[in-house]
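Possible regression after last week's pipeline update?

I re-ran a chain I had predicted before the update to compare outputs. Posting the input and the new output here so someone can diff against the archived version. Not blocking, just want to make sure nothing changed silently.
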Amino acid sequence: MSDPNASHVDVLIVGAGISGIGAACHLQMESPGRTFMILEGRADIGGTWDLFRYPGVRSDSDMHTLGFNFKPWKADKAIADGPSIMSYLRETVAEHDLASHIRFGHLVRTAQWDTGSARWTITAHDQATGSDVQYTANFLFMCSGYYSYKEGYTPPLPGIDQFGGTVVHPQKWPEHLDYAGKRVVIIGSGATAVTLVPAMAKAAGHVTMLQRTPTYIAAGPDRDVVANTLRKVLPDGMAYSITRWKNVTLGQYFYRRSRSHPEKVKAGLLKRVRKALGPDYDIDTHFTPPYNPWDQRLCLVPNGDLFEAIRNGTASVVTDHIDTFIPTGIRLKSGEELAADIVVTATGLNMVMLGEVRVEVDGAPVDFSTTWSYKGFAYSDVPNLASSFGYINASWTLRADLICQYVCRLLNHMAATGTDQCTPRLRTSDANMPATPWIQNFSSGYMERTMNQLPKQGDREPWINPQDYQRDKKMFAEAPVDDGVMQFSRAQVPA
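New output (post-update):
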């Protein structure tokens, strides 16, 4: 067991969200004996699920795949709200006795690798004391998510200074915002916007979702009937495994069909929206995107709550561009004016690389945009470092679990071979490999704004990031750890 007062550990995990908690649990189960520590910049666990406090905050993936592969989701609702997910994570921390391994209020700023000793030196800002502290580790596991916790993305909003109401970004939701009876305009059409609209419409005077372009939206039940039935007749673990397999299989089938037959999938999605909103609603303008399904992430609305709010008149959708803010609301390019007491800018996230930690290898700063992605979790010529990054076309944790299991395989291999360092390096045959973006065929704004900062992807294994669960399972579970690309060596000087 790790010494809670230690300044050196075998594995240092950055982030105590769903990725970091999962990483720690996998280490305990699959690479026992390794000492580890979790540094968390915030005051609590949960990451995304602790940060976001806006009305209705919930998962947009089912919890039988967003949950860990080792801990069954037992609640009745498969599409869970933020507090329920936090309860699940707290249970996991308690069951695996992780509390003593977590140091809260420690914001990691730099990570410096020294080849001679085969160690990382990690500098974190201790927010309780206001001073910087240092830790050393043999292996660094970055589980800090993919977006900046400092602030969300807000595009230029002309005339915003003259608006007389309140402007809120979902990433920094005020604790006591009173929107009862108020006129609310929500700018955006993604997952956050379609969650906020029906949640706020329950109390607001009226909620308008203002979008430049529509998003594909699918309604589905928030309860998984199959899962809830199986739990009545099977052990929790078995019921969970079957449900997880079912949901992964169906999700992958739908994604692949979206890529192979986009027009058919598009027609099916729009048919369901038309049925939900009636033949007189302008589906072409407000719910028909100019791109194919899964070119951007599909939005789920549980039990059709967004459509219900539109039908009963508590919410509406406007598709237009902002001309300028005015004291009483927003003037649109069409000349229409939207009156507003509160404007919510559900305009997205600022994607960042490895939690904005400055990484150095032997004194040289690492520019990750010049590196090649090794299996989508490590980086060429960067030793003993892994990062957890989930799927953009499926539940985040499906891939996070696979990465954690592979990291444990790496650590176990080094223990068995007496090596201290593992570094992915290009083979001679990879020298002229064509470069492609780290994530392909995905046009969401938060990705496109930062793709040039992310590592390159090649055209062959292991320099790929396929975003394909079945392919990833083979690549992570069956491919040899010592594959001729991951280079293993011993420290040059004693630790």
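Follow-up from reviewer: compared with the archived run. The longest strand covers residues 131-142. Marking as no regression found.
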